[in-house]
Amino acid sequence: MKPAPRVLVADDEPSIRFVLREALEEQGCEVVLVEDGDAAQEALAAGGFDLAFLDIRMPGPSGLELLDRMRAQQSDTAAVIITAQNTFENAVEAMKRGALDYLVKPFELREVSALLEKALRARELQREVERLRRESGRRAPGGDARWVGRSPALLEIFKTVGRVAARDVPVLITGESGTGKEVVARAIHAASARNTGPFIAVNTAAIPRELLESELFGHERGAFTGAVASRAGRFREAAHGTIFLDEIGDMSMDLQAKLLRVLQDSEVTPVGGSEPVPIDVRVLAATHRDLDAAVAEGRFREDLLYRLRVVPLQVPPLRERREDIGALAEHFVARYAEPLTGAPRYLSRDAVALLERQRWPGNVRELENAIKRALVLGAGEVLTPQDFEFLEETAAPAQGSFKDQLRAEIEKAIESGGDDVYRHLLERVERPLIETALLRTDGNQIRAARLLGINRNTLRKKIADLGIAVPGRD
Length: 474
Prior knowledge:
alpha/beta
């Protein structure tokens, strides 16, 4: 049971003290009455008050002077200035000196109740800030955001990167836009024996097809209009390092044939040149497209797919690793708060719970942008669900039939070369099933177990094993 809020009332008018005491005690408060600024200062120094009503003019220090002293002492007591004159100057001066609000005589009891509620909310928010500051101080700095988290899916990526990094073979990284495919590629390069060489990333979809060949393989002087000097090309620039071909699924068929030749022979022929140039480079590629479907439709060469997909690596969407969302969101707040607002900012528990319920069709990139928007538009030190109201505009993408989705997941699991397909798929089904049941029951595990038709102890074990966040749990 929470202790009763403690409120100080400092006013030299007995009638004001009486009315405020009656109104506040009716709200369950413990009220301390003083009639001058000296007594108020002594009471505030003793501490323990959630809220103080301070008369703007009374014997001894005035309410405004007391505000200055409270601010200098970094008091966590919320203060309301009582004034007989509702002037612009009084309002501005009170707020400038750190008052929570001001109360104009004569006042209504509902105004007192509203100010009490506002003060208690502010006090709770301040405690949340202090908790978040302590936790943020314990967090390890640095690292890329897409590696922040503790989900089984993220752990599988870690393990795969560790296995393939030392083996100098092509890796095809697949996944939806915004999941961090380039980050995975950079991690593979950083953990490989080529990490002292360059990492060259090329977005093949962003370069016009007529310029892409020159961009990749280089050109000789005079090879085409505007070629006033020779250029080595990205493959040769990546010598003894790694080249990352992003959005490889958008490459034209004629250039696919030339890329296949490069991979087969480990040499490039510049545009306008006649002699091939040997290269020593590792090739990593990525796409958000289904290349098997593209092969079936004649839009992608099957032999090139085999060359690129010596090792396949699937990066899961954010909705399939929801337990990472809170950590990612806090990472982005810590990264962008100072540059965007000039001060630290924090996420409330309710805000984290809201973010964890979102579908995030844009994945980590969308979450990152949502945090930036909330930081720019939010006014408080703590980001609350109100700062993310714009997320309600986000529509979930259209879904195929459950049978089609399940078949696609089975194909992915088999294609990844894992030897535990049954467990992998069972986790993919169990997690959203349990999360949905918990959301529908507001985190009540007894009701959720009944809804699922399983024993409560079984449900609790699965929640622990899968690392599922229970809604409403602090």
